[in-house]
Write a structure and sequence with these properties.
Strand 24 and strand 25 form a beta hairpin. The chain starts with 14 loop residues before the first strand and ends in a 14-residue tail after the last helix. The chain has 16 helices and 25 strands. By secondary structure, it is α+β, with helices and mostly antiparallel strands. The chain has two domains: about 280 residues, Beta-galactosidase, Chain A, domain 5 (Distorted Sandwich), CATH 2.70.98; about 375 residues, Glycosyltransferase (Alpha/alpha barrel). Keywords: Hydrolase.
């Protein structure tokens, strides 16, 4: 299927959903409201990349619902032809996805399509309840069409066969698709009938011939007729119809089952229809309400703040893969996804989960870090022996995706282990992951440049190789956390060694990471001695990641002259969004939808800057204003936070981002406590 809009424009996700218990945890659904993205010429809302068993492998892509009106000879698609749309959750605690689309036919007749989506707790399936309403009664055909995107990543078999077939049994019609490992089955029901009024398996993008796509048959032909095609192999789409006579309103249910074999996938889909949407919804609601009852809920008494707080926690939990890690996001900036697991992002999510009392998920995420740590004799493409470190990010099965060395992804996991142990008071946590943290600390101890500072590494923005400010601070924090872990285990000598190395690095921190007299002023920079230059250069520009040197890494005080001079520069128009107080990563940032420095900001960067403003005394109300007012300007239609916003605060790039959700939770929790939550240990007299 060749969509008429350019999918090189980011496909932001306004909402995601999964379950916090049961087999539904294996399913991750995402939905996108194109009407909220001014850079895309579409106004509709659809379910998009949906995965099962692995959050980074989609089983189908666009889930289209199309309305055919024979009197008007017009087919309207819910992505491309809607005139208005919305995506939301049922509530902040229950991520039942609601999609609403409005249509106007050529003669002015209006129609609406409302869809509700839940995942089953009891089985690996999802159910979609649809209701179409028309201004006038008439005969209609409602079509369902989706791309079978069962497609592994490059580390899997690139020649895997993607197959689909339609089966008609005495009880139901079903379409099954698979890649020999992952299977899905889709069925529909209307007034007790589980039949398709026409069905087609086609080849995506083929507009003519025997293999022409279901999209071409349904949308391009625009005649209300499907030429049945029962099977195919390759890059496939599939569609089927539901014909109804003389109606103004019609409701129907579609269920999709997932499994590792065809019969089980069919069983799950049919069982979802047997149970009914409301039954599965009730179990879904109960599972989510039960989960929220076990964590901090609505902590402030301020409706807007508590709504975003609960939604942030819900999103983080929904992004949890069955491996125990949490994917960074579910969006597609261009032709790739963010459905990978970054150790750094895990660390901040662990910090947020602990702050909210979600100890079980935090423990699981630490265990995930332990499981994927590099423990063998492995040398990367720079010739660095990586024993004790982590890869830059991971596929959800634990295999490496990007592989550069980032020190916040070495010191950070030690910090996450230390914080989980400290917050739970459980020495079992200390013992279970002690070897993990010790291996990481041993790597850091050896990663000295010979002059009293951490050797070169990639910065957190994954652009610069050098002595990054944030990565170096994370390395110092990691060693200080290790010292406390080692003391608790009776390894006093190792604790002293870690503290001494951390203190030497801290003593040299400003020498490497702080600059005076740059075109911007006096400030911490992205990185010292960058391998490559830039405009502005990484060693001559202020960087929001530097604020993490205060929180959570606790290497530079918030009221230190160096930190104050850096945060004071955030008023520079080159760094902050014009119409909303949200700073970007650094002035001149080109990681934007256009690939050039656009006016805008990153909510997570503003969060770290606001903590410095708050604790330095420059703005005692910075956190309160952030969580009460500013964050509300930066959310998706489902009130979730993105990676980046445009100059006016509207979502501009990559939503929703779990790191952004985590910082919101942490700001609320820090404000309640009256101090930043989760500061790493500082310098001690014993060191």
């Amino acid at each position: 299927m060749e969509p008429p809009i350019d999918f090189q424009v980011p496909s932001d996700k306004d909402a995601i959903a999964s379950t916090p218990a049961g087999d539904g945890q294996d399913v991750l659904v995402s939905a996108n409201c194109y009407a909220a993205n001014p850079r895309v010429d579409a106004e509709g809302a659809i379910i998009e990349e949906t995965s099962a068993f692995r959050s980074d492998v989609e089983l189908f892509y666009d889930y289209h619902t199309l309305l055919w009106d024979p009197e008007r000879e017009q087919t309207l698609d819910n992505r491309d032809d809607a005139v208005a749309s919305d995506v939301d959750w049922a509530s902040s605690r229950v991520p039942e996805i609601h999609l609403d689309n409005e249509f106007v036919f050529a003669d002015g007749m209006s129609a609406t399509l409302s869809q509700r989506v839940v995942e089953s707790v009891d089985r690996c399936s999802m159910t979609i309840h649809s209701e179409a309403a028309f201004e006038e009664a008439g005969d209609r055909t409602l079509y369902t069409l989706l791309n079978f995107g069962i497609n592994g990543h490059s580390h899997e078999d690139p020649n895997a066969v993607h197959e689909a077939q339609a089966r008609c049994t005495p009880d139901h019609d079903v379409i099954v698709a698979d890649d020999d490992d992952r299977f899905l089955a889709i069925v529909q029901e209307h007034d007790g009938k589980r039949r398709f009024d026409g069905y087609r398996i086609g080849h995506a993008g083929e507009s003519t011939g025997r293999q022409r796509s279901a999209w071409a048959e349904i949308y391009e032909d625009n005649n209300g007729w499907l030429t049945n095609s029962t099977a195919g192999a390759g890059d496939l789409d599939g569609g089927f119809g539901l014909f109804v006579e003389d109606v103004e309103r019609v409701e129907w249910t579609t269920a999709i089952g997932f499994a590792h074999d065809a019969e089980s996938a069919i069983h799950h889909a049919v069982a979802a229809l047997d149970a009914g949407y409301e039954t599965d919804r009730a179990a879904f609601v109960d599972a989510w309400e039960s989960w929220h009852a076990g964590v901090t809920t609505a902590p402030t008494g301020e409706d807007a703040v508590d709504d975003r707080y609960e939604r942030s926690l819900t999103a983080i939990r929904a992004a949890r893969d069955s491996s125990g890690g949490m994917v960074a996001g579910a969006f597609k900036p261009k032709n790739m996804t963010y459905r990978f697991i970054w150790p750094r992002d895990q660390v901040i999510m662990i910090q947020a989960l602990l702050a909210a009392g979600a100890d079980r998920e935090a423990r699981d995420a630490v265990a995930w870090l332990d499981d994927v740590q590099i423990t063998g004799d492995v040398v990367d493409d720079r010739g660095i022996e990586r024993h004790g470190t982590w890869w830059q990010n991971y596929y959800t099965d634990g295999s490496p995706h990007w592989t550069a060395l980032q020190l916040d992804q070495v010191g950070g996991p030690i910090y996450a282990h230390w914080l989980t142990w400290r917050e739970t008071g459980d020495d079992g946590v200390l013992d279970a992951h002690y070897d993990m943290s010790r291996r990481a600390a041993e790597f850091l101890l050896e990663w000295d440049n010979g002059w009293g500072f951490p050797d070169a590494h990639q910065d957190p923005w994954e652009e610069t190789w050098g002595h990054s400010t944030e990565g170096s601070a994370a390395a110092i924090a990691g060693l200080r956390c290790m010292a406390e872990l080692a003391e608790a285990r009776g390894e006093d000598e190792f604790a002293v060694r870690c503290r001494k190395r951390a203190d030497v690095w801290a003593d040299n921190f400003e020498t490497y990471c702080y600059r005076t007299g740059t075109p911007y002023g006096d400030h911490f920079v992205t990185a010292d001695k960058p391998e490559h230059g830039g405009d502005p250069a990484p060693d001559a520009r202020p960087d929001a990641a530097a604020f993490m040197a205060y929180w959570p890494w606790n290497v530079v005080a918030a009221d230190a002259d160096t930190m104050r001079s850096t945060v004071e520069l955030t008023e520079d128009p080159a760094w902050v969004a014009e119409e909303t107080p949200c700073i970007g990563r650094y002035p001149g940032d080109r990681y934007t939808p256009t690939g050039r420095p656009d006016d805008g900001g990153w909510p997570l960067c503003e969060a770290y800057a606001d903590v410095v403003r708050w604790q330095s005394g420059l703005d005692p109300d910075a956190i309160a204003t952030h969580v009460r007012e500013h964050a509300g300007e930066w959310t998706t239609t489902a009130n979730l936070l993105p990676e980046r916003v445009a100059s006016d605060g509207t979502v501009d790039w990559n939503s929703n981002l779990q790191w952004s959700q985590a910082t919101y939770v942490l700001l609320v929790e820090s404000r309640l406590r009256g101090e930043p939550y989760g500061l790493a240990p500082g310098r001690t007299d014993s060191s």
